[in-house]
Amino acid sequence: MTAEVNDVAIRAQGLSKSFGAVQAVRAAEFTVSRGEIFGLVGPDGAGKTTIMRMLAGVLRPDAGGILVDGVDVGAEAERAKLRLSYMPQRFGLYEDLTVAENIFFYGELFSVPRKERLARSTELLDAAGMSPFRRRLAGQLSGGMKQKLGLVCALIHTPQVLLLDEPTTGVDPVSRRDFWAILYNLRESGVTILLSTAYMDEAERCSRLALLHGGQIRYCDTPARLKQAMPGALFAIASPTPRALRTAVAGQPGVLGVLLMGDRVHVRVDDPARRLPELRDLLAGLGVPDGAILATEPGIEDVFVALLGQEAPT
Amino acid sequence: MNARRLFALAYKETLQIWRDPRSLAIALLMPLMQMAMLGYGVSLDIKHVPLCVYDQENSQQSRALVDRFVSSGWFSISRTLGRQAAIRDAMDRGECIAALVIPVDFSRQLATTGSASVQAIFDATDVNTTNIALGYAEGAVAQANAQIAAQWAAAHGIKPSLVGQVDLRPSTWFNETLDSRNFIIPGVVAVILALVGAQLTSLTISREWERGTMEQLISTPVTALEVMLGKLIPYFVIGLVDAGFCLVSAVYWFGVPFRGGIGTLFTTTALFIIVVLGIGYLISVRIRSQLGASQIALLVTMLPTTLLSGYTFPIDQMPAPIQALTLVVYPRYYVTILRAIFLKGSGLTDLWVPLLGLTVYAVAIIWLAARAFRKRLD
Ligand SMILES: Nc1ncnc2c1ncn2[C@@H]1O[C@H](COP(=O)(O)OP(=O)(O)OP(=O)(O)O)[C@@H](O)[C@H]1O
Ligand SMILES: [Mg+2]
Q1: In angstroms, rounded to a whole number, what is the distance separating the alpha carbons of residues B3 and A108?
Q2: Are B116 and B106 in contact (CB under 8 A)?
């Protein structure tokens, strides 16, 4: 094995999958290096779950090859499963089993030695802030707790590759913070993480992102470079009536896109030197003060909208 | 095959059964209820029992009695006979299940003494039907009596209660003691085990699909064979407990004599349980909803066990093509075996033919079940 191959945790080549007439994934190609946190971002139905399922070896691709931790998933799915953990989008643990019973079950399925299982589950439950809930039925946990339990069960056998499908959707901010603290720790220990997310702040934390649309990977790069790739420049305008402002600005010459961000409106223009005075004039006419308009750095949400040409999820 | 994974699956399944009221009810309550219900005999509403009449007198009064039988709707006259010996032939040919014989001096006896006896003969091969028909005959005679008594009392000025009236003398042919229990209870046990066994396992895989736990389960290195065995082991234990309950109550509750050996009973029962659990599991793998799976399991076990196992309808009384069909119906073998163990005290060697049938079935079902489950979403 060459050093380059050793460094690759996940490689997908020409991955395709159709359900009847629906092409869920079309010729997806990407490579994830060891220790990366790789994000899949895209609107509903973009094909995120389908890609994850194929990587996890539970769905057979129509075409294409997958390598996970050096194992060909198409040929040796069962061997690949020893090295990875997959947390499905829908809660996949047993609600009629307690926290401890679920952990025991998944530990045993991966033949984790007893001592190691006990030590690891103590450590993971502590990190997740869930130690007091060992005897609680999984079905009686809050949404955030459930997801953290899912992560604990996924990590009980120390996988090399972790696949998380929208792990923090519907999770409260405190649990999300715990969750990400665990993920960063894992990355330190060399675990590769591939996750899909609907949250733009989470996408920003990934080392690299794949922007998915209509089953195709449109862009794949670091968040910083994706921002650079965004055409035009961005101004943020604060306004007490952002919706009205959005309507007024949209359709002006040189305006490429307008995005509502809370009480501000992000306006993307082709040529900032030329368009700023024009915008100022327009705003003056609307009674918006001069200081309300500022040049701003794009967030990943702006990039998402600019590159995929549509509203981001959330 | 990995022993730890197998144990983990069996343990998990046991916990789930223990915490699922529906599974618990099927495992523990259903055998009790079914045993009570089926054991005490299903009362079928039978109409138009074919009746042969040998009316030796053919008087107005004898014809009035026959009319009572027919007008109730319970009987319909299939033939009128001219001699006693014809009854046997008619029954052999299946032309009638009951025969009514009215003596030549019927109306004279009634007129002089106020009472007369008639004979009713039943083909008791099918004990259930016989019991019901017997009840109908008694009802018809009672109605006739009420009328005769009223007429007689009016004519003689005596209170009707003092009149002796028509006396029905029933006799049964082909199964003289009419002891159906010994025959039916072993069949009931087979029906219950088939129902309960297939119901329980029909839920086991479909439950994982329905609750969304399957996707994560199949992303682990667990093998399909481990899933099958790990899930079937707890149900096998439950099946044995249920079988123990049914068989013990057959002996101590319903008083069926037990003449065979425990070892023979255990071996054959275990084999039968494997077959029914395997069938339920196969259905569960194919149908991804619990409700659908349990309904199909009900259909697949209920129809053959109640209709074709010979539990109520004797196999040798069925038309030849149906008899041939029963050969592929697994409960048939177990019903035959149970009856032989209970009533004749047969051992494994006496029973090699049905035992072979059951074994072939068990091996085939388990083979199919082991191959049916795929660790794939599509
Ligand atoms: N089992 C299936 N049968 C039929 N169509 C499917 C199946 N799974 C996915 N699809 C279709 O494939 C497309 C991609 O679905 P997928 O679940 O991968 O999207 P997603 O990006 O995960 O969306 P979401 O954000 O809603 O989870 C959708 O159009 C979906 O309807
Ligand atoms: Mg999805």
Answers
A1: 10
A2: yes
Question: Do A238 and A217 share a domain, yes or no?
Answer: no
Rounded to an integer, the average pLDDT of B161-181 is: 61
Residues B190 and B284 in one domain: yes
pLDDT at A143 over 80: yes
* Beta bridge partner(s), residue A72: A67
CB contact under 8 A, B4 and A111: yes
Is residue B308 located within the same domain as residue B237? yes
Count of structural domains within chain A: 2
Q: Say whether both B132 and B226 belong to one domain.
A: no
pLDDT single digits (tens) B194-234: 989 999 999 999 999 999 999 999 999 999 999 999 999 99
Domain ranges, residue A66: 8-226
pLDDT per position as a tens digit, A249-275: 888 888 888 888 888 888 898 888 888
In total, how many domains does chain B have? 2
Residue type, A93: L
Residue B364 sits in the same domain as residue B290: yes
Mean pLDDT confidence for B49-77: 87
Please give the Cα distance from A167 to A171 (Å, whole number): 8
pLDDT digits (tens, 9 = 90+) for B68-118: 888 877 888 888 888 888 888 887 777 888 899 999 988 888 877 777 888
Residues B286 and B212 both lie in one domain: yes
Residues of A in contact with B215 (CB under 8 A): 53, 58, 86, 88, 90, 92
Q: Which of these three, A226, A251, A280, is where a domain ends?
A: A226
Q: Does B16 touch chain A (CB under 8 A)?
A: yes
CA-nearest residue to B217 within chain A is: A92
Instruction: Label residue B178 by pLDDT band (50, 70, 90).
Output: very low
Answer yes or no: do B12 and A96 touch at CB < 8 A.
no
- For the question of whether the overall pTM of this predicted structure is more than 0.80, the answer is no
Residue B167 placed within a domain: no
CA A120 – CA A6 distance, rounded (Å): 27
Yes or no, beta carbons of B215 and A92 under 8 Å apart? yes
Same structural domain for residues A100 and A186? yes
Q: Is residue B172 part of a domain?
A: no
Whether B57 and B22 map to the same domain: the answer is: no
Domain span including residue B93: 49-155
Phi, psi of B100, deg, nearest 5: -115, 125
Stretch (H or E) spanning A175: helix A173-188
Say if A1 falls within a structural domain. Answer: no
Query: Which residue among B16, B216, B378 places its CB closest to the CB of A86?
Result: B216
Tell whether B161 is covered by a domain. no
Contact B216 A53 (CB under 8 A): no
A242/A218 same-domain check: no
Give the whole-number percent of chain A exceeding pLDDT 90: 61
- With a 6 Å cutoff on the Cβ, whether A49 touches ligand 1 is yes
Residue A302 resides in a domain: no
Q: Is A44 in the pocket of ligand 1 (CB under 6 A)?
A: yes
